[in-house]
Amino acid sequence: QWQLDMEARLRTLDAMRIVQGTESKPQFTDPLDSGERRELRDYNSRVDAAAGEIWNCVEREQQTHLEAIRDDPGAMWRKLESVHMQKRPGTRGRQVPEHPVNVSIPAQVRHEGSASCGL
Predict the structure, then answer these.
(1) What does the pLDDT look like over 101-119, one tens digit per residue?
(2) Are 48 and 58 in contact (CB under 8 A)?
(3) Residues β-bridged to residue 96
(4) DSSP conformation class of 98
(5) DSSP code for 88
(6) 48 to each of 8, 15, 52, 95, how far by Cα in Å?
(7) 96: pLDDT confidence band, cut at 50, 70 and 90?
(8) Is the distance from CB of 15 to CB of 44 less than 8 angstroms?
(9) Mapping DSSP to helix (H, G, I), strand (E, B) and coil, where does residue 22 land?
């Protein structure tokens, strides 16, 4: 359920395609015009929003897996999948959560001052 809820939140931020890797950073040749600067700024803002959303919606113990990649929401997503998904007998190759990330984050495990992710 966490994955579906998080996908919905990332879609609301217009960032799910970035996380999935189907949208990449715009490539422009210098000097950038105002439209290109705006497009690049928008993309970077959506990357930051996605990374922050994912970070805030995992428990502190899970954040240790993400510290080195906290600026790359796609890498964060793939890391969480690799840590929490496994193939189990009887699932016909489908991946199922080993132990889903807890999204009801008690205040004591969230970073000081961070907002609850609301999931």
Answers:
(1) 443 333 333 333 344 565 5
(2) no
(3) 86
(4) S
(5) -
(6) 17, 9, 6, 28
(7) very low
(8) no
(9) coil
14 CB contacts (<8 Å, ≥6 apart)?
Answer: 46
Contacts of 61 (CB under 8 A, 6+ apart): 109
Contact 57, 117 (CB under 8 A): yes
9: nearest Cα among 52, 39, 45, 41: 52
Q: Distance from CA of residue 49 to its chain's centroid?
A: 9
Residues in the chain: 119
User: What distance in Å separates the CA atoms of residue 34 and residue 15, rounded to the nearest whole number?
Assistant: 22
Nearest to 48 by CA among 65, 27, 72: 72
Rounded CA gap, 119 and 103, in Å? Answer: 6
Decide: pTM greater than 0.85. no
pLDDT band for 95, please (50, 70, 90 cuts). very low
3 within 8 A of 103, measured Cβ to Cβ:
no
Report the C-alpha gap between 97 and 20 in whole angstroms: 18
What pLDDT does residue 78 have? 94
